[in-house]
Amino acid sequence: MNLGKITLITPPDKLFNTSLSYLLIKPSNYVKEQFQTILSQIIDDINVYVFDNDDTDIAWLLGTSLQVDCVIIDIDNCDPMTYKFLSFIMSQPNVHYITKDDTTPFQLINRNRIYDLDWIVEQIKAEEEGRDDDTQEE
């Protein structure tokens, strides 16, 4: 089994290819560790965009959130500037969010609340199987 190529992309860079792409917005160390564990099992190439603690390029963040296949926001780790743009980002169907805040009604904007990243393994397997099926048909 060969592992796929993982491309890490941070502001202001962008990459345009057909690889599965994820955007992690202000991920905590726990989220990073979970995602790293998932990446260690990936067979296909994958792009990982990261908007981390020191990043402030909101234009990059908004554009990238519309470009990638899946966005994961760690709401509890967002700085005040990023927090101002959460409602726009969360209104997209490919966005999933993690929070311990049970009082703010984020579910009115987005029903894709997650508690960990285990579901990504299933998503990636389905994506890989879909690509294998396409290859076999050719």
Q: Please, could you describe this protein's structure?
A:
The chain is an alpha/beta fold and 138 residues long. It is 37% helix and 18% strand. Strands 1-3-2-4-5 form a five-stranded parallel β-sheet, covered by helices on one side. The model has no long low-confidence stretch (mean pLDDT 88).
Shape by Cα distribution = globular
Give the count of structural domains: 1
Q: Architecture, according to CATH?
A: 3-Layer(aba) Sandwich
Low-confidence stretches: none
Largest sheet: 5 strands, parallel
Average pLDDT over all residues: 88
| Coarse structural class | alpha/beta
Q: How much strand content do the residues show?
A: 15-25%
Task: Give a quick summary of the entry.
With 138 residues, the chain is α/β, with parallel strands linked by helices. 37% of the residues lie in helices and 18% in strands.
